[in-house]
Amino acid sequence: MEILRVVVTGGVGAGKTSFIRTISEIEVVDTDRRATDEIAELKAKTTVAMDFGRLGFAPNQSLHLYGTPGQSRFDFMWDILIQKAHAYILLVDAHRPDHFRYGRRILNFINQRVQLPYLIGLTHSDRPEAWNAEDIAIALGLLDEASRPPIMVVNATEKASVQEALITLIQELANYS
Amino acid sequence: MSLGDFLKRMFGGTPVPPDENTPELPSTIDTETISEEKIMINVSMLQDELQNFVSGSSEVQGAALVSPDGLALASVLPGGMDEERTAAMSASMLSLGERICRELARGSVDRIVVEGEKGYGVLVGCGTDAVLMVLASATVKQGLLFLEIKRAVNKIAPLLG
User: Fold this and answer.
1) What is the CB-side half-sphere exposure of residue B155 using CA atoms within 13 A?
2) Out of B95, B103, B129, whose CB is closest to A48?
3) Residue A167 sits in a domain of what CATH number?
């Protein structure tokens, strides 16, 4: 049995838990707790340890999806989860520019520790105030187009869209090694 | 006012119109300030209660009260330990522990104990809105520690309202 471990990370409210819930074949192991700070205005519950979902994509091959908490006070969880991962997805909320810097911080945190193939998923792109991919890439500090990871629009609540993102990531992983 | 009037006023009878020099009671009480004050008192009482708990036993080295989403409410921690990080870790641990208990059919969580070479880290729920994390030295008697934690929880939980 070959297991591919993929970490789904990103800022608060980017759609990490939704992403895993949408695609997982098993009931997602979540650790949601009621938010008690300013995040409560955005959503009622927030992940405090991790989310776990599984997806079989070929006989004898399965994908394990680990979702991280969004807040930086949980950065020890980012570290624990990323150490064993094969690839990761950074979800960025495209309509909240104030969160781009935060995405950049997560990116730096991970890339300082491990070198992994990754993908950037832009969520909430259907909002009128959403930024386009090129501008977000620059905001995330990915200036060099040649070394840039794939950047794609992801609808975390739509199965086809999540599948597409995972397929792209697996292709990226295959090219990488 | 005659004594008769006074008694009448005290023990029923016909209401006497207020004297002109009787101060009038405010018709509405500002509940907002009162509830704010209550929270203020609770925070310092929480901190006091936690401080009492930690200083009450030489084996208890620190304690933190945190919200279920990992924000510190009050803490008495050994030097060099970051409050924010400790709070987040406590919430992650308890939440994961609760999930393990449920997934593996162990019922509800009484406590989570991390036993290290240098001592214990114990996590217990404290009412529905808080988690108590206690650090104790390796020499502590476990039964005593758990008893003390239980007592502390009984004191702290009512303060959270």
Assistant:
1) 16
2) B95
3) 3.40.50.300
